Amino acid sequence: MAMTIVEKILAQHAGLESVRPGQLIEARVDRILANDITAPIAIRQFREAGAHKVFDRDRIILVPDHFAPNKDLASAEQCKILRDFAREHNITHYFEVGRMGIEHALLPELGLVLPGEIIIGADSHTCTHGALGAFATGVGSTDVAAAMITGELWFKVPETIRFVYSGRLKKWVSGKDLILHTIGDIGVDGALYKAMEFCGDAIDALSMEGRLTIANMAIEAGGKCGVFNPDEKTFAYLKGRTNSSYAPVYSDPGAEYCEVKHYDVSGIEPQVSFPHSPANTRPVSQAGDIAIQQAVIGSCTNGRIEDLRIAAEVLQGRKADPQVRLIVIPATQGVYQQALQEGLLEIFLQAEAAVSTPTCGPCLGGYMGILAKGESAIATTNRNFVGRMGHPESNVYLANPAVVAASAILGRISSPEEL
Amino acid sequence: MSNGQRVIKGRCMKLKGKIWKFGDNINTDEIIPARYLNTSDPAELAKHCMEDADPTFPQKVQNGDIIVAGSNFGCGSSREHAPIALKAAGIACVVAGSFARIFFRNAFNMGLPILECPEIGAHVAEGDVVSISLEDGTITVAKDNTVLQAQPVPDFMQALLQDGGLMHYVKKKANL
């Protein structure tokens, strides 16, 4: 029976010949991820169940990244719960401050996610890892507790929507713009309960960073996962990052999709999502005159090296507007180091940016850039809900790194073309 | 998950409560803003439940109240703090047009009853009283006795709840 990549991965992990959308299965999971916000609840559930042993210490990944380095006393206690559990159970992949990064940037960078795998994470942006041809989905803390004990979890096989992108991207248009445009088209529940499979010649031409950004925001359309069929770029990306063998899985030619959407990317401009919904998108040329007080470049969506290179290209030899607080947060320690070696940090510092150690920080209104009442920020992050970056009466606009950098320079939402 | 067990086996199968009404796409940052996630203590979270959608909600909500919302309730983050906060604030059930899928999972895992009923918004106003039977998914509006049919809880989920929720199911499986 012809199956999609998601159906095939789920069938393989459930020990079944085939699965169909709607079917409930129990499947083996390859990686289980949690962070300083979600792991404490999972650990409490694990203990309350009377469990003494994790099913496999090599398959559990714990990353203190949301409110780490500890933002306050309560966060310090939460991070400590994670650290103590990791030590007690000798968890192989625990990443302390100084080695850590934002989980969804860190795992691919370290080759901890492989094509054909199932990754679950108590973080909604776990869908990022579908960029590598894996089935990756966000779950709750109780799901993580259950999987840490048994190595298995129940899933409902999702229907798949196929998104086909063709044509050549314009200058300054990136994976971020494709996914914002798509969410603007289908809405924040346009892919509710469904898998989003991304393909087409524009996707083939896209970097791994661009694909990770697209998969990252599948959840913003309600998607259960975002997935790409692996190709030479996937394999090249993994080379040198992992020594493990893996078996790539691909959608069959006759696989059934509940819907197929086509986009010609050659006409797509850089996109901006206006408050307070990621689906509230406009081309940057139609943004109007919107003053901003803060610009944030970072997050699991756009804090990778390619994102910082693009931002540096725009910021080189320029300074942020005096009315704007520019904050740059490399997503991982590795990205930070590479940006240093490539001279990008120098460009950011010359532009009068505050450059931070990796953290999710301001993206979810934690710290490192909270907005006051009435303030507006443009950010490369993923959500612009009410109160997301601070005061309930503040505004967040979502865009790609080039647009955020250009806006920081001009003090208002703008395209790099205007510089 | 003892609460989940009660829901299926005991007296909580039938609920009756006053409605708080919300719109479409109520996200987890509205249900419990991320700035309060430096704790997972239910009582603390309850103090800020729905605060960014309605700042006075934590003061107004009463034990046993029911939330009625539009489509895609609980979208956004995977935080289990969202159903924890709703439960701790006293919410007995959420009836929405549809639910974001991680929230849907979390609600069952935490023992917060939820029902999908796209028609309900058109039949009730804030403050109305409804009776809900979780077993068959019927919702009766007290003011005019209209009976609405929500999507019944799938058998598999009922079985999970009958086991006392996911952790009890896992305990049995792992011989804990």
Q: What's the arrangement of secondary structure elements?
A:
The complex is a heterodimer of chains A (419) and B (176).
Chain A: H1 5-14, E1 24-28, E2 31-35, H2 39-48, E3 60-63, H3 73-88, E4 93-94, H4 103-109, E5 118-121, E6 135-138, H5 141-150, E7 152-156, E8 160-166, H6 175-186, E9 195-199, H7 201-204, H8 208-216, E10 225-228, H9 232-238, E11 259-264, E12 271-273, E13 281-283, E14 294-297, H10 299-302, H11 305-315, E15 325-328, H12 333-341, H13 344-350, E16 354-355, E17 376-379, E18 395-398, H14 401-410
Helix pairs in contact in A: 2-5, 6-8, 11-13, 11-14
Chain B: H1 2-9, E1 14-21, H2 28-31, H3 42-46, H4 57-60, E2 66-69, H5 81-88, E3 93-96, H6 101-110, E4 114-116, H7 120-123, E5 129-133, E6 138-141, E7 147-149, H8 155-162, H9 166-173
Describe this structure as you would to a colleague.
The complex is a heterodimer of chains A (419) and B (176). Chain A has 419 residues and is α/β, with parallel strands linked by helices. Chain A folds into 2 domains: 5-263, 2-Layer Sandwich (Aconitase, domain 3), CATH 3.30.499; 272-418, Aconitase, domain 3, CATH 3.30.499.10. Chain A is built from 14 helices and 18 strands. In chain A, the strands form 5 sheets. A 5-stranded parallel beta sheet of chain A has the order 4-3-2-5-6. In chain A, strands 16-15-14-17-18 form a 5-stranded parallel beta sheet. Chain A has a 4-stranded parallel beta sheet with strand order 10-9-8-11. In chain A, helix 2 (39-48) links the parallel strand 2 (31-35) and strand 3 (60-63). In chain A, helix 6 (175-186) packs parallel to helix 8 and helix 11 (305-315) packs parallel to helix 14 (401-410). A 7-stranded mixed beta sheet of chain B has the order 4-3-2-1-5-6-7. The longest helix of chain B has 10 residues, at 101-110. Chain B starts with a helix and ends with a helix. At the A-B interface, helix 2, helix 3 and helix 5 of A face helix 6 and helix 9 of B.
